[in-house]
């Protein structure tokens, strides 16, 4: 019989908001926090997937609140934070995971697409962080994790909007971290490389990215998994990272360290 205490046992009972929760990295993050005994508030635009996911988690004993909306809507951040406090009485962790991409030559990038990516990837992150911080500062404790990207550190063609917003998320993370540190908050970002999600596989099918080229370009020779991103999120939310704030931590198999194409 294994009586060892989990190194993340401090997470049990914490209230966690995850945006973009119904698929890919967000789904794995939600499952990982559920396994730690957390109470969840899950946001996604896909109501069907979100409902199915919540039912699955509730069967395993996790208490789940779902909200179907987009972080691009100005009222969404206020709604999910208020719902967390109303249902659970407090808010401990926010995972800003919702994100979109747009792959166009920069001369052909429509303004509507630029605005869409900006609204979801940057403005939505800021608004959710701002609303969560209002509650966290009141109790002098809380963790905010933003999902940035390797493409916020290095550039790629045809991704002007995506790279610009993810780079901005990295710097926003640092600003919020130093501004709110004395109030008991920690703010960090995870910068994944290519992760084997449905969205990436769809881009492969559309021939917008080449899977073998990505593997060759990655020093570890493979794409990451959503579970690997989730484990970093667990660590950064836990007390084991209590002196870590204002950091953008790459989980990319060496992608951003490797300067050779």
What does this structure look like?
The chain is α/β, with parallel strands linked by helices and 261 residues long. It has one domain: 3-Layer(aba) Sandwich (Rossmann fold). It is 44% helix and 15% strand. Strands 3-2-1-4-5-6-7 form a 7-stranded parallel β-sheet, with helices on both faces. The protein is globular, with a radius of gyration of 18 Å. The chain starts with 14 loop residues before the first strand and ends in a 10-residue tail after the last strand.
At the fourth CATH level, what is the homologous superfamily?
NAD(P)-binding Rossmann-like Domain
**What is the CATH C level class, in words?**
Alpha Beta
Which regions contain 5 or more consecutive residues with pLDDT less than 50? none
Category by helix and strand content: alpha/beta
Q: Tell me the radius of gyration.
A: 18 Å
Features:
261 residues, alpha/beta, Rossmann fold, seven-stranded parallel β-sheet, 7 strands, globular
Write the layout of secondary structure elements.
Elements lengths: L14 E5 L4 H12 L3 E6 L2 H13 L4 E5 L7 H13 L4 E4 L14 H29 L2 E6 L12 H21 L4 E8 L5 H8 L5 H7 L8 H12 L10 E4 L10
Parallel strand pairs: 1-2, 1-4, 2-3, 4-5, 5-6, 6-7
Helix pairs in contact: 1-8, 3-4, 4-5
Summed up:
The protein has 261 residues and is of the alpha/beta class.
């Amino acid at each position: 019989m294994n009586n060892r205490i989990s190194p993340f046992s401090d997470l049990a009972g914490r209230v966690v908001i995850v945006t973009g929760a119904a698929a890919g990295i967000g789904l794995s993050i939600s499952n990982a926090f559920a396994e730690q005994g957390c109470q969840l508030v899950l946001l996604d635009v896909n109501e069907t997937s979100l409902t199915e996911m919540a039912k699955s988690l509730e069967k395993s004993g996790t208490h789940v609140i779902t909200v179907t909306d987009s972080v691009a809507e100005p009222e969404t951040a206020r709604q999910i934070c208020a719902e967390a406090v109303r249902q659970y009485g407090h808010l401990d962790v926010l995972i800003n995971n919702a994100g979109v991409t747009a792959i166009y030559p920069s001369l052909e990038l429509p303004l509507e697409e630029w605005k869409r990516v900006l609204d979801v990837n940057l403005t939505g992150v800021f608004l959710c962080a701002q609303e969560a911080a209002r509650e966290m500062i009141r109790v002098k404790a809380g963790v905010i994790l933003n999902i940035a990207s390797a493409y916020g550190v290095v550039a790629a063609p045809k991704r002007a909007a995506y790279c610009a917003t993810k780079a901005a998320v990295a710097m926003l993370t640092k600003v919020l971290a130093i501004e709110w540190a004395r109030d008991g908050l920690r703010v960090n970002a995870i910068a994944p490389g290519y992760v084997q999600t449905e969205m990436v596989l769809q881009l492969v099918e559309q021939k917008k990215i080449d899977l073998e080229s990505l593997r060759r370009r990655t020093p570890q020779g493979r794409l990451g998994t959503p579970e690997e991103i989730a484990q970093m999120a667990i660590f950064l939310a836990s007390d084991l990272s209590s002196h870590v704030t204002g950091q953008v931590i790459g989980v990319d198999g060496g992608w951003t360290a490797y300067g050779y194409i």
